[in-house]
Amino acid sequence: MAKWRCTVCDYIHEGPEPPETCPVCGVDASFFEKVEEAAANPCQDEVKKALRHITYGLYIVASRKGKKINGQCANTVFQITSEPVKIAVGINKNNLTHEYIQDSQVFSVSILDTNGLGLVRNFGFRSGRDADKFAGMEYDMGTWGYLC
Ligand SMILES: Cc1cc2nc3c(=O)[nH]c(=O)nc-3n(C[C@H](O)[C@H](O)[C@H](O)COP(=O)(O)O)c2cc1C
Fold it and tell me: What is the mean pLDDT of residues 126-135?
């Protein structure tokens, strides 16, 4: 039986096709990817299984470069310390958002709840190099010029 993994919440569905909607986070079938057969290294498979038990949130990390703005979906945002306020964000160096953060040295983090899952498709599956992800979207600029 084929296995399908929800790319948003890691739920695994077994069946010939992905489910119409994810029973855990509610996204539609297009968010599912087929789980490939066992990796050459069986340990790697076990490690991957274990990794799915690590919990995380869902965020939009956005930044700017001059007057241009861009953002991306991220789940690697977490608090390091509250005093001083310090968080860690994992951003792939190939992403446009990374380029903008490097340039402006500012970024925002928007915390998504289940109502925000529709934003995942816009911000998580395409690059700002190919589309203006903020087109038609409401947003505010903070006092330091970052987005909130
Ligand atoms: C659920 C989800 C979580 C993601 N988490 C991260 C992340 O933590 N760090 C990261 O660099 N990319 C993450 N991505 C991938 C980026 O959102 C994606 O590559 C995006 O298209 C980059 O856009 P940009 O080139 O406009 O910056 C995630 C994608 C999804 C769907």
Answer: 96
Ligand 1 touching residue 21 (CB < 6 A)? no
97 touches ligand 1 (CB under 6 Å): yes
- b or e along 24-63 (b: 16 or more beta carbons within 10 Å of the residue's beta carbon)? ebebeeebbeeeeeeeeeeeeeeeeeeeeeeeeebbbbbb
As its CATH architecture, domain 3-51 has Single Sheet (2.20)
What are the residue boundaries of the structural domains of the chain, listed by start? 3-51, 59-124
CATH code given to domain 59-124: 2.30.110.10
- Minimum-distance ligand 1 atom for the alpha carbon of 76: 8
Average pLDDT over residues 72-97: 95
Q: Average model confidence (pLDDT) for the chain?
A: 89
